[in-house]
Amino acid sequence: MTKTTFAHFGTGIPAPSSTPVLPFCGQLGAVALFDKPLTQLELQAIHQCGSDFQFTFKKGDVPLHHELANADSLLSKLVLLYNPRACTRTRACLDNSPKKCQESAAKLMQGTSVLISRKVRETLNCIGGVEAIFPLFKQLNQDWAIEYSMTARIISLISEMLRNNRTNQESMLQNRSFKTLGFILSELNSRNINHDTLKALQGLIEVCTATGEKGLMKELYWHIFMNFHLWIRVHHEVQYEMTLWICEQTAKNTEFFHKVIGIQHLLDVLRYFYWYNQSSDESKAVHVCKDRPTGEKLTPIRRNILETMHLMLNSGIRDAEVQAILRHILDCEDDLQVIEMLRHLFELMEAEIPRLVDSICEDKFTIPLLGLLSSKNREIRLLTMKIYGKMLEKSSYDKRPKFESNGVFVTMENTL
C-alpha cells in the first residue's frame, strides 16, 4: 500500500463520504504501531508493561517498574503511539511517538471508552482485604487437595497483597490477622507445611521488613514463627530449617528478638515441645504429638533454640532471666534437659555474658542450686560443681566469703 487515504483508527484525516465510519466499541488501552517486526524479547517487554501502561518507551519517562532494557530499539521502530488514558477533555488522543506526523492525533469515537483495570489486591479491599483469601486454606484439607505446594502459593499471594500497599498492611495489623493465619495453618494437614511453605513465609517476612512497620514483624514472628503448636507437627527437617533461620535472623537483630520473643518463651518451647522424656508432673502441659522429632532428630533443633537464646543474651541478662533459667533447671524432672541446660549455663558464664556472674552469685540463686548436688544423676552433680567453680573464678573477691557462709563448700565436700 503506497498511500493511505483513510483509517478507522489513528489519524485525523477525514473519511471519504462514501465510507461509513464504524468506530471500535469497547474499552481501549495503549496502541502502538511499529514499522518493523519486533523481536520476542521486545514483545515480552511490552507485555510486561500491562494494560495500564500510559507512558512512552523513552528511557527515563516511565516509573522504575516499567523501565525497558531495549527502549531505544523500540523507539527506533515506533510510528504511532496512543495512550487513551491521557486523552483530553475533547476525547482527543495525542500521538506520543518521536516520529510525529501531521494530523496524527486520534479521537475516541462514541462507544469507545478508556481501559481501566484494577489490581487484585486493590479489588479485594472491597470485600474484606487480605483476610478474604484466608478461606482458601481450609480447602487444602479436602480429600482432593493433594497439591501440597498450594499453601506456599497462597502465602505468596498474601505477600504480594501487602507489598507497597499501606491499606492492606494497616488492616492486617489492626485486625491481628497474623494471629488468625497462625491458627489456620496449625489446623492444616502437616504435609501442607513444608519447605516451600517456609520459604513463602520467609518471603512474607521480607515484605513486612521492607515496610519498616515493626508491629507487622512482631505479629508475624510471634503468631507464626514462634507458634510451635504449628511447627511441632511438621517434618523434622522443616523444623530444623525454621529454627536455624530464626537463629540467623536473631544474630542480625538481637535487640528486636530479645524484646519480642524473650528468654522465657524459648525455655517454655524447650520444656513443653522439645522434651526428651515426658515428666509425670508435666503430662498435662507438654505437647504430645505422634510425629514430633525424637532422639537424634531432636538434639539439633534444641541446639538451634539454645543458640538463639545465647545470641539474645550477648548484650546482657536481667535478674528475671537468670531466675527463669534456674527455675527451668530446678523444676524440670527430665534429666537430659537438666544436663543440657547446665551445660548451656556454663557456656554462658564462660562467654562472660554481662551481669550474669554478678546475678547468679546472689544468695537467692546460689542456695537453690545446692539441691542439684544431691541429685542421683552423677553428670548433674559434676556440672553443678563446675558452675560453682566458675562462680568462684569469675566473681569479685568480696563475694567469695558468701560461699563459705552459705554452706556451699561443705555441701560440695560432702558430695565429693
Describe this structure in words.
This protein is mainly alpha-helical. The protein is built from 21 helices and 6 strands. The strands form 3 sheets. A two-stranded parallel sheet has the order 1-6. Strands 2-3 form a two-stranded antiparallel sheet. Strands 4-5 form a two-stranded antiparallel sheet. The termini are far apart.
Layout of secondary structure:
Elements: E1 26-28, E2 31-34, H1 40-48, H2 71-77, E3 78-82, E4 92-93, E5 106-107, E6 112-114, H3 120-123, H4 135-138, H5 150-162, H6 166-174, H7 177-187, H8 195-211, H9 214-225, H10 228-231, H11 236-252, H12 254-260, H13 263-272, H14 298-313, H15 319-331, H16 335-350, H17 356-360, H18 363-369, H19 378-394, H20 401-405, H21 408-415
Parallel strand pairs: 1-6
Antiparallel strand pairs: 2-3, 4-5
Helix pairs in contact: 5-8, 7-9, 8-9, 11-12, 11-14, 12-14, 13-15, 15-16, 16-19
Précis, in short:
Helices cover 51% and strands 5% of the residues. It is mostly helical. It has a two-stranded parallel ribbon with strand order 1-6.
Q: What percent strand?
A: under 5%
Count of DSSP H/I helices: 21
The averaged pLDDT comes out at 81
- H/E series: EEHHEEEEHHHHHHHHHHHHHHHHHHH
Note the gap between the termini: 108 Å
Tags for this model:
single chain, 416 residues, mainly alpha, two-stranded parallel ribbon, two-stranded antiparallel ribbon, 6 strands, 51% helix, disordered N terminus
